[in-house]
Specification:
The protein has helices at about 5-10, 20-40, 50-55, 60-65, 70-95, 100-115, 120-125, 135-160, 170-190, 190-210. With about 220 residues, it is an all-alpha fold.
Length: about 220
């Protein structure tokens, strides 16, 4: 999150007309951003509640009004950003006229989002493992949500071309896992070329999964 973004979420100084719920909502949003920023930069283990509250500009009391501990905060941040990301990606694809256009739109959205928020995405992709079983369960839920998007897109493809065979078992998991690996590499390299290559590779992977080898070059 940039300084400008953080400033827009600060509460006004002095008396204000915000309700208690509005104040709590603003503080929670800032804490979520701070969790992702710190875990993405420092790693989950090295991040403390003090780091999070200092970045968010809220008190420890306010933190504990929202979350029971650091793990609870990270899981909340993980669920929020992944849910937001998938919903926005689906919305981008839904505006497309054809499945091919939808794949391109979703892939563009994916890479652009990662490019804008590499620290937050790094936290989501890499630091979730530090939570052990709780992290693996959260990651599994996200993978299944991504697979559901693939499955819905595959049904759309076959509605437009009934002769096209269905993808073989585990194709959705393979495509989603490959997508995660490709964007992780883009973040790791951090260059414009890396993001451009990830954009093409992710699109190729989704087309291969949806259409098979016959339409990858479409």
């Amino acid at each position: 999150m940039t300084e400008q973004d953080r400033a827009t979420r600060k509460l006004p100084k002095g008396p204000h007309n915000l309700s208690r719920d509005e104040v709590a909502g603003t503080q929670r949003a800032r804490l979520i951003d701070a969790v992702l920023e710190n875990t993405g930069e420092r790693g989950y283990v090295a991040t403390t509640i003090g780091h999070i509250t200092a970045t968010a500009g809220v008190s420890r009391t306010s933190f504990y009004e929202q979350f029971s501990d650091k793990q609870d905060a990270f899981l909340a941040a993980y669920r929020e950003i992944t849910t937001e990301f998938i919903a926005q990606g689906v919305a981008a694809g839904a505006e497309a006229a054809t499945p091919l256009d939808a794949v391109t739109a979703c892939c563009d959205f994916l890479v652009d989002y990662v490019h804008r928020r590499p620290t937050a995405v790094r936290a989501v992709l890499l630091e979730i493992y530090a939570l052990g079983d709780a992290g693996l369960e959260a990651r599994e839920n996200t993978l299944r949500a991504g697979e559901a998007v693939f499955d819905r897109t595959a049904k759309w493809v076959r509605a437009t071309d009934p002769a096209l065979p269905s993808p073989p078992p585990f194709t959705a998991r393979t495509v989603v896992a490959a997508t995660i690996e490709l964007i992780t590499q883009a973040i790791w390299n951090g260059t414009e070329d890396a993001y451009g290559q990830a954009r093409e590779a992710v699109r190729y992977t989704w087309l291969l999964g949806l259409f098979g080898h016959r339409s990858v070059d479409a």
